[in-house]
Write a structure and sequence with these properties.
Number of helices: 12
Number of domains: 3
Distance between the termini: 43 Å
Mean pLDDT: 81
Helix content: 40-55%
Low-confidence stretches: 492-499
Strand content: 15-25%
């Protein structure tokens, strides 16, 4: 057999290499998309992280230009620094001028670091339809589990008239004003200024001067925020999937070039072989798996050539069998015709009539046997033939069969030894066809051996199978035909050195056993006593 030229690594290694390439490509695409999404999100996010140690140091050293405004107040936030007179000395938006805060305004701005104060405004009317406003303020924080906790002990409530004067108050208010402006109420409830929330942080710079940091954090519109987040997420997924598809296409094309080439070569070779145009072996070098496939193909080509030789041999054997069958049929027919013609012509003495009739009867009986055997073999080979199986106690079945055959065996001058256990051994068999198996095996022992031969019948359990042994201590089987003893058409002096039989008995036996899902084989001599040993294995 001609082998493929050279192995160039394995298909597994090829796939791994390309998989690594694909994975790295997808990861790179993912990182790029993630970076772009984070950048877009940061630009659209208004969340503030607060003051860092670095920012606090810059505040004390009054290096305001180095403050990270986006980190402190969010992307669109503003920070302002006030002196001891509450005048703005620095603003991140560049607007300073004469800008300043009143003490009252600063008192309304919560300190940085406070968890939060929930202040709400409600309107109600008196019996005289006079309008009043109710201010309710409650501090809140978060516990260790992240749950919101309201501090009712430090809450306060104020009732304001139409002029925003305090007409009633209760609770622990840190702000003791008796009247408010509309702007101040807006500070309290977080509606002024409309676009920002305020926080203040008091500190002393390195020169001992009092400073106040005002943090104006852009209010986040939850609806817009989550809409933008959803849009960014969808866009990122779409881009990621597109990138993955592109990587897969590239991966597929690379793999196609490396894998499809040998497959096309194999396909072409098999097509030519199926058309009978070419049976030459394939020569290919590449991944070891494809090299092995090529080698397997070449082995198949060789086997097909061998099968063709076997087919021609089988045809020749059948032709030889048909010739032998024809000869075997022709011989008794010729004898019958000759003796019948002599009787019809009256050339036979009356004393010889019985002799001639016996000969005619014997030859017709032989003719019937040959025809029946040939018919039986042909019937078994037919695809429509089916066994009629049933549950049978195999031990009892064999005992009954041997009991029926016992007298005939003894009358023919043979002896028999039986070893069948006294227990139930259930098996599914076709009783009629399996009897033919036993008839053929016992018949062979009687037909091909001399008087005095001992026959041995044994049934046992080996593993998950029943084993039937039919053996004898007769003349044995020559080494020349032991390997093909079950082949059809082994006739004449190839079959136990006699001309008896058609050569189909053991072939029929093998076919019936295999139809039962069993195996029949010619075993080794048994106990240094029995030369010819037939073993039948049947599944429970």
């Amino acid at each position: 057999m001609k082998k493929c030229k050279k192995e160039r690594g394995g298909l597994f290694l090829l796939l791994i290499k390309n998989y690594i390439f694909l994975s790295l490509s997808v990861m790179i695409v993912g990182v790029i998309i993630y970076s772009i999404a984070i950048t877009i999100f940061d630009k659209r996010s208004e969340f503030a992280a607060g003051l860092s140690d670095k920012d606090l140091k810059n505040l004390r050293q009054e290096r305001f230009s180095k403050l990270d405004t986006k980190f402190i107040a969010g992307y669109s936030g503003i920070i302002e620094v006030l002196d001891e007179n509450n005048d703005v000395i620095y603003s991140s938006d560049g607007v300073v001028g004469d800008k300043s805060y009143t003490k009252r305004q600063l008192n309304l701005i919560p300190y940085y670091g406070q968890c939060g104060i929930d202040t709400r405004l409600y309107k109600f009317y008196s019996k005289d339809s006079e309008e009043f406003k109710l201010l309710i303020s409650t501090p809140y924080s978060f516990d260790d589990d992240g749950y919101l906790v309201y501090d009712s002990k430090n809450s306060w409530m104020k009732v304001l008239d139409e002029s925003l004067n305090v007409v009633y108050e209760v609770g622990n208010s840190a702000e003791h004003s008796k009247s408010y402006t509309q702007e101040e109420v807006g500070y309290l409830i977080g509606e002024y200024p409309k676009d920002y929330t305020f926080m203040k942080y008091d500190y002393i710079n390195d020169e001992g001067q009092i400073r106040t940091l005002i943090i104006k954090e852009k209010k986040v519109n939850d609806v817009n925020f989550y809409n933008n987040l959803e849009k960014i997420g969808i866009a990122s997924l779409i881009i990621f999937f597109i990138g993955c598809i592109i990587c897969i296409i590239i991966f597929g094309e690379i793999l196609k070039r490396k894998v499809q080439k040998p497959l096309d070569k194999l396909n072409r070779a098999m097509q030519l072989l199926s058309e009978g145009k070419n049976n030459e072996p394939i020569v290919y070098s590449g991944p070891k798996e494809f090299v092995k496939i090529c080698d397997s193909f070449n082995v198949m080509v060789n086997k097909l050539e061998g099968s063709e030789i076997e087919r021609f041999k089988l045809i020749k054997d059948k032709q030889s069998m048909l010739a032998d069958i024809s000869h075997d049929l022709k011989t008794p027919v010729t004898t019958i015709q000759g003796y019948s013609k002599a009787l019809v012509d009256g050339v036979i003495d009356e004393d010889d009539y019985k002799k001639y009739f016996n000969i005619i009867y014997s030859k017709s009986k032989r003719l019937t046997e040959l025809i029946n055997i040939f018919h039986e073999y042909s019937k078994l080979e037919h695809p429509d033939f089916k066994l009629v199986v049933e549950n049978v106690d195999l031990a009892e079945y064999l005992r009954a069969y041997v009991a029926v055959k016992y007298e005939d065996i003894l009358e023919n001058g043979f002896d028999i030894e039986v070893d069948i256990p006294e227990k139930i051994m259930e098996c599914r068999i076709d009783k009629i066809q399996f009897q033919r198996v036993l008839d053929n095996l016992l018949g062979n022992s009687i037909k091909h051996n001399t008087v005095g031969t001992k026959i041995y019948v044994n049934l046992s359990i080996v593993g998950e199978k029943y084993k039937i042994i039919i053996a004898d201590n007769g003349v044995g089987i020559s080494k020349e035909i032991r390997s093909n003893i079950f082949s059809p058409f082994i006739v004449g002096d190839e079959s136990r050195n006699t001309k008896q039989g058609s050569g189909l008995g053991l072939a029929i036996t093998k076919t019936i056993v295999e139809m039962h899902g069993g195996i029949i084989k010619l075993g080794k001599p048994l106990n240094n006593k029995y030369k010819t040993v037939f073993e039948i294995d049947l599944i429970y």
